[in-house]
Amino acid sequence: MAGYRIDAVDEEGTLIEVQSGSLGALKSKLRKLLPDHRVCVVKPVVVRRKLVRRDRVDGPERSIRQSPKRGALVDVFDDLVGVASFLPDKNLSVELLGVSIEEVRVTRRRRPGYRVVDRRLDCILETLRLNEPDDLWELLPAGLSDSEPFTTRDLARKLDRPLPFAQRVAYCLRLSGAVRPIGKVGNSHLYKAETSLIHSL
Questions:
Q1: Mean pLDDT over residues 144-172, rounded?
Q2: Which of 5, 53, 131, 178 fits a 20 to 30 Å CA distance from 33?
């Protein structure tokens, strides 16, 4: 399609792109396709991980355990920075899949003591479709009100995440048009939501 390979086309003609890697890699493809085609980007986000350890790639499984680390759909903001400017386009939707996977690791001597040789989908735990900038608020916790301006430090506190992550969230919200800068508090930009479809306090 327009010189690009497409993963699938649904019965309504929407182009489906499944992107487990960086969303930023889709920039040129989206720029070319969106003016004339509806595109749905399917983005898996790992929220649970089962670790399968082997001594060699084709060897038997030595152990299987759940990773203590947990993810969340909000983690996608680390990757959304690559396509945030396209989110206002009515021809684009992003389907987020919170997934549980099996990660196969083979033991080795060099740090970190293993290498990943395969990742397999176990199940889909949750989904969220982003059809417009307003939908980004569904990824954020309650307590951000459309009547209250906020800084990235406020955002970091609400998310219980480091400031750099909150800055990426604010960047995505701003590029998509979900918020607008209205001034500064000290060295921090002050943002105000451009929507009323936000969790209330």
A1: 89
A2: 178
